[in-house]
Amino acid sequence: MLQKSKIILIMKHDITHYPPIISLCNILTGLGHEVVYIGACSNLHIKQNLQVSGVKLYLQDRYFDNPLQRFTQQVIFRNRVTKIIDKEYTDNCYL
Q1: Angle ∠(71,81,30) on CA atoms, nearest 5
Q2: In angstroms, what CA-CA distances link 56 with 6, 29, 49, 66, 69?
Q3: Residue-wise pLDDT tens digits, 4-33
Q4: Residue 38 in contact with residue 6, Cβ under 8 Å?
Q5: What are phi and psi of 87, to 5 degrees?
Q6: What is the CA radius of gyration of the chain?
Q7: Cβ atoms < 10 Å from Cβ of 49
Q8: pTM for the whole thing?
Q9: In sequence order, which residues have a C-beta less than 8 Å from that of residue 15 and are 6 or more positions away?
Q10: Among 38, 71, 75, 92, which is disulfide-ready with 58 (CB 3.0 to 4.6 Å)?
Q11: Whole-angstrom distance, CA of residue 59 vs CA of residue 50
Q12: 55, 43 Cβ separation under 8 angstroms
């Protein structure tokens, strides 16, 4: 029998633009794996569906168009992802 794992998915872009990633999250939770998503989600309906299916969400804001603000957001996102990985990562985990 397969051992259930924790899978951490990190995306710096909005998940609503990548329907295969949404399907992957639903399939993995349906198979009994714990899924952690780190990234943006601009659609409230998709966010609620992911939460209902059991995906643990760490959401960030969408990137600004201003280059300076965008750079600042990327640095903050990188630091935040590092902290989340330190918190969530275990021996039975895929990143």
Answers
A1: 130
A2: 11, 10, 11, 30, 27
A3: 889 999 998 889 999 999 999 999 999 999
A4: no
A5: -75, -45
A6: 14
A7: 14
A8: 0.87
A9: 21, 22, 37, 39, 40, 41, 46
A10: 38
A11: 12
A12: no
